[in-house]
Design goal:
- The chain has a seven-stranded mixed β-sheet with strand order 1-7-6-2-5-4-3.
- α1 crosses α2.
- It has a single domain, classed as Rossmann fold (3-Layer(aba) Sandwich).
- By secondary structure, it is of the alpha/beta class.
- The longest helix has 14 residues.
- Bound molecules: adenosine-5'-diphosphate and magnesium ion (MG).
- The site of adenosine-5'-diphosphate has 17 residues, from α1 and α2.
Length: 147
């Protein structure tokens, strides 16, 4: 899929928000500046968040709960994680009981931390936009492609 500009990334996030459920993990993979946070912001805005979501690079985990958003979401940025064990302390798997996870830099956790994650990979294209590819697990098959 082609996302020609930041607005397209935002719109893609909004489409994702329509089908997002607690227990979902959306992995947002790609280099610095690829547009991971932009998609997460599109999701959060469509879930009802007023104002722009901050990038969680420093906080690592930025939680959102109703009534601020329609469903609970943890926006996670693992860029600063050096040891996958640090992530265990974040309690993400427990949080999945009632929240959805949007995870930037998921590969910091090793090979395949969440086999059931919708795994989105962003790369830069030659025209200044981004190309997005998705690994769609069984849990997402009925929801994919997004509409
Ligand atoms: N699909 C896109 N096409 C062009 N520019 C984009 C796209 N998505 C995001 N951007 C822009 O790229 C920059 C970095 O985006 P950001 O979402 O912060 O990246 P990341 O979180 O992957 O580091 C921002 O200026 C953003 O507006
Ligand atoms: Mg980011």
């Amino acid at each position: 899929m082609h996302l020609r500009d930041a607005a397209a990334a935002h719109a893609f996030g909004a489409a994702l928000a329509k089908v997002l459920r607690p227990g979902d993990v959306v992995a947002l993979s790609g280099p610095l500046g690829a547009g991971k946070t932009s998609i997460a912001r599109g999701v959060l805005a469509a879930l009802g968040l007023e104002g722009e979501a901050p990038s969680p690079s420093f906080a690592i985990v930025q939680p959102y709960d109703p009534p601020e958003v329609r469903i609970s979401v943890l926006h996670v940025d693992l860029y600063r994680i050096e040891d996958p064990d640090e992530v265990l302390e974040l309690g993400l798997d427990e949080a999945l009981d009632d929240a959805a996870l949007l995870v930037e830099w998921p590969e910091r956790l090793g090979d395949d931390p969440w086999p059931d994650a919708l795994w989105l990979t962003l790369v830069f294209d030659d025209a200044g936009g981004r190309r997005l590819t998705a690994r769609v697990p069984g849990a997402w098959e009925s929801r994919w492609p997004l509409t």
